[in-house]
Amino acid sequence: MDEDIKSLIENNTKLVQTVYEQNRKIKHRLTMMVIGSYVRLGLVLLPIILAVIFLPPVVEKIWAQYGGLLRGFGIPANSSSGPQLNQLPIDKVINNASSDQIKSILNQLGIGR
Asked: Rounded to two decimals, what is the model's pTM?
């Protein structure tokens, strides 16, 4: 009977050791998964943060350099915020149009009644 108990205890000890090793491997794998998740998050957020920091000055320089090309469209070259609706020539056309002309255009577009 002592030998049966002793063999059961040895068997139990081996099984516990196996379970302990499996748990250690699982814990290591979960730790790596968490680290990988943080790395992926950094890979997504880092370009966005860098773009917010460094892109506005670059866009302003490009706009100042190539803004002269847009003068033909009625967009001022020194505008740092880009084209605005009230600066486009279409605004002048709409302001000078009569109400009958506007109704005719809306009817042709299928918007008018």
From this structure: 0.48
Q: Rounded to an integer, what distance in angstroms lies between the CA atom of residue 113 and that of residue 95?
A: 21
Ordered per-residue pLDDT tens for the chain, 113 residues:
788 999 999 999 999 999 999 999 999 999 999 999 999 999 999 999 999 999 988 888 888 877 777 665 655 555 555 555 445 566 677 777 788 888 888 888 778 65
Ordered DSSP codes for 37-96: HHHHHHHHHHHHHHHHHHHHHHHHHHHHHHGGGGGGGT--TT-TT---GGGSHHHHHHHH
Cα–Cα distance for residue pair 46/50, rounded to 1 Å = 6
Question: For 97, which DSSP code?
Answer: S
Whole-angstrom distance, CA of residue 62 vs CA of residue 80: 10
> Phi/psi at 96 (nearest 5 deg)?
-90, -10
Calpha distance 50→74 (Å, rounded):
33
